[in-house]
Design brief:
Elements (H helix, E strand, L loop, with lengths): L2 E4 L7 H12 L2 E6 L2 H14 L2 E8 L2 E7 L8 H7 L10 E5 L9 H15 L8 E4 L14 H9 L3 E5 H6 L10 E3 L1 H9 L2 E3 L2
Helix pairs in contact: 1-2, 1-3
Amino acid sequence: MREIVDARGLACPQPVILAGKALEKNERIAVIVDNRMAVENIRRLGAKMGCDMVVEEKGGGIVHIHLTRGAAPPPAAADLEALAVCTPTGGSPYIVVLSENRMGRGNEALGEILIKAFIHTLTQLDPLPAKVICYNTGIFLALDDSPALEDLRRIKDAGVEVLVCGTCLNFFNVTDRLSVGSVSNMYEIAGSMAAARVVSP
């Protein structure tokens, strides 16, 4: 009988810790996750333990990982936390700054098409950005009627922090329409931009 570990919606390093604890008691488990960091961390756990692994993409960002325990004993809880990678890897850290709800100067309709395509393309990048920051009219990309809303949600669900300027939300009187990300402030935004490479479309 395969134990099922449902780790959807859990922040790093919880998915890999739960998987490690389940492998202490079971030879075979299936872990359900919904972000890329969790998938990679559980792959690392499986490799460390010599597990046979099968990874199934279920659509909608859901992934089922089937592990059959090998000869190695499960790591201790502290080792599981050390094993986990909770920020995107594969290159220097970078953040994406969305200061407008369109991309480039000139035709506004074209700019709206381009920014939607840019955000969708972000979901395919490896590594993903560490953060996405929205300010000025860029906050409209995180509101309930944004054409890019689903892609921003997908990015957030993959472990990317989405920060939205609180001053800007108040200025445009749209705070109650924020649908993805967390309300931020200029201190956090400036600190984030100073600490990483900034990409701004």
